[in-house]
Every structure is written in C-alpha cells, then in structure tokens.
C-alpha cells in the first residue's frame, strides 16, 4: 500500500512538473500560434478521453482495439452520426475550444481525437 501511495505521488509530481516546465518554456520562447492551438486541441482529446474510457473500453472489450479505434477515428473524419463517439468528440472540440478552431479549423477535432487515441492506446496497451 505504501509503495502505491509513493508511486501515485511521484506520478502527480511528474505531471505537475511538466506543467511548470511548459509554463517556463512558454514564458521565454515565442511559440507559434498554430503550435499552441494544435497542442490545445490534442490536449482536449486527452482530457476528454479520461471521461470516455468507460464508453470506449466496453467497445474495445467486445470488438478489439483496432476496430474500436478505427470506428472512433472514422467517426471523427466523416462526422457520421452512426459512429457517434468520434463525431461527438470532434464536434465538442470544434465548439468548445474556439481559440484552437480559429487557427487549425477542421483539424481541431481530428487533433483532439488523436489525443484521445494516444491516451486510450496507452491505457489499453499498458
């Protein structure tokens, strides 16, 4: 039990440290706006994935990893409501992070889905 607590504390410190490092870099380095907005969209996908693991995990359990991700990405690319998970995520990102959408346009949703894909892949394959 004690080692789990220290592991969680270490993971939290690492994640928090990454935020501080990113803030320091952004303070001293001029990061181009398209890079900032692409990172925002990708991060949106990673954060939303934390909420959607329960939904996608069942699909992955029933159909496997590749069919689940293929359907999710297809939904984001074609915006078909029959493949709702990807389409809904792309729509949320297009409307919820206007700064990113203003610069990356249609790629905002796709970048967010790629963030989700990365996060879900780490979760599913770990």
From TrEMBL:
Species annotation: Labedella phragmitis
Protein name stated in the entry: ZIP family zinc transporter
Transmembrane spans: 6-28, 35-53, 65-92, 104-125
Entry keyword set: Membrane, Transmembrane, Transmembrane helix
Keyword Transmembrane appears in the UniProt entry: yes
